[in-house]
Amino acid sequence: MERVALFPGSFDPFTLGHEDIVRRGLSLFDKVVVGVGHNSKKKRYFPIETMLDYIRQTFDGENRIEVITYDELTAELAKRYKANYLLRGLRNTTDFEYENSISQVNRYLNTELETVFLITSPSYAHINSSIIREVHRYGGDVEAFLPYKL
Ligand code: ADP
């Protein structure tokens, strides 16, 4: 059976840290589906369609990566894409606290779903989408944190 992993997130914006998790995920899974979610709690800074284009551009020519948007429960989306794994990145204990509860809920909603965590590569551990948004909002240069040109 094909091993499909879903990498869900807000990706507002998608960073070098996210790209690293996807590429490393390819050594574990046959296919990685990057799901750009409409987060009910947050209004996006970068429009979702624009971010979709940037992520597709980042993985251009890589036929084992699919990039989609979604507006439903992650556990349901995983079923639709026949993904038995959720891929997530861990940077620190703050990520762990959040990821721990969310992975328990996802497994409750979809018993087939296993969450797989990859520890961030040290060179990307400091990269944080919300700080990038703040820097960009006030005109700072954020290109060094992104795998594409804005
Ligand atoms: P969410 O809103 O679902 O937390 P994010 O876009 O902030 O979505 O993050 C998606 C996933 O990527 C999360 O698992 C997060 O911990 C992980 N992540 C975020 N930044 C990095 C990074 N610099 N290196 C590795 N993983 C990261």
Secondary-structure blueprint:
Layout: E1 4-9, H1 16-25, E2 31-37, H2 48-58, E3 65-70, H3 74-80, E4 85-90, H4 93-109, E5 114-119, H5 129-137
Parallel strand pairs: 1-2, 1-4, 2-3, 4-5
What does this structure look like?
It contains five helices and five strands, in the order E-H-E-H-E-H-E-H-E-H. By secondary structure, it is an alpha/beta fold. The N and C termini lie far apart (about 40 Å). The chain has one domain (about 5-145): Rossmann fold (3-Layer(aba) Sandwich), CATH 3.40.50.620. The model has no long low-confidence stretch (mean pLDDT about 95). It binds adenosine-5'-diphosphate.
Q: How many structural units, i.e. domains? A: 1
Low-pLDDT parts are none
Sketch the topology as an H/E string, one letter per element.
Answer: EHEHEHEHEH
The average pLDDT is 96
Largest sheet: 5 strands, parallel
How does CATH name the architecture?
3-Layer(aba) Sandwich
Oligomer: single chain
Regarding CATH, which class? Alpha Beta
> Beta-strand level of the residues, as a percent range?
15-25%
Name the helicity range: 25-40%
- Structural class by sheet pairing and helices: alpha/beta
Please identify which CATH superfamily we are dealing with: HUPs
Kindly provide the radius of gyration, computed on alpha-carbon positions and rounded to a whole number of angstroms: 15 Å
How many DSSP-defined strands?
5
Shape: globular
**Could you give the distance between the termini?**
38 Å
* Count, helices: 5
CATH topology: Rossmann fold
Q: List the strand order in the largest sheet.
A: 3-2-1-4-5
In this entry the ligands are: adenosine-5'-diphosphate
